[in-house]
Structure to design on (169 residues):
């Protein structure tokens, strides 16, 4: 019986050491939260801290002589919000409206606000900062980074570049 005590003591020590290592690494691992949306079946994400709200699609009033990516404006509780079609911003073909379409109201650190028309809103991803990588070389559009979600790559959109209407996708 005396042989069991030293063995259990060493297991306890190993368990404590493993727990302290986990506790030591947990605060150092920074998790980013990303709102994942779908455009033409492909996943895109916007940092949650830049999302003000998500609303159902409502009538959009077209504005003459604006960039083709700008669908128009909506009134949201008395505030006039410009709506940018993410499909057109990514230079994809327009699509028919569906019940899954949403407008994601995005704000930038510089104070810009716009609604972004997406095919559907999927989920909030929690991704470690170390799992986020650079986009492919030469990418000069609105995609700022890439991460994985299961077996697929998710393109993380830069809100500042997204709201620069008339820029390159």
């Amino acid at each position: 019986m005396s042989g069991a005590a030293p063995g259990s003591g060493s297991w306890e020590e190993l368990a404590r050491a493993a727990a302290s290592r986990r506790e030591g690494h947990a605060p150092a691992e920074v998790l980013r939260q990303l709102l994942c949306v779908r455009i033409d079946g492909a996943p895109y994400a916007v940092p949650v801290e830049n999302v003000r709200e998500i609303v159902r699609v409502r009538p959009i009033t077209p504005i003459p002589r604006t960039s083709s990516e700008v669908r128009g404006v909506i009134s949201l509780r008395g505030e006039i919000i410009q709506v940018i079609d993410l499909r057109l911003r990514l230079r994809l073909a327009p699509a028919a409206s569906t019940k899954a379409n949403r407008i994601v109201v995005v704000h930038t650190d510089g104070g810009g606000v716009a609604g972004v028309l997406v095919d559907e809103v999927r989920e909030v991803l929690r991704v470690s900062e170390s799992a986020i990588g650079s986009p492919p070389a030469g990418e000069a559009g609105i995609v700022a980074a890439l991460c994985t979600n299961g077996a697929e790559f998710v393109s993380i959109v830069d809100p500042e570049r997204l709201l620069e209407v008339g820029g390159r996708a």
About this structure: Confidence is low (pLDDT under 50) at residues 1-8.
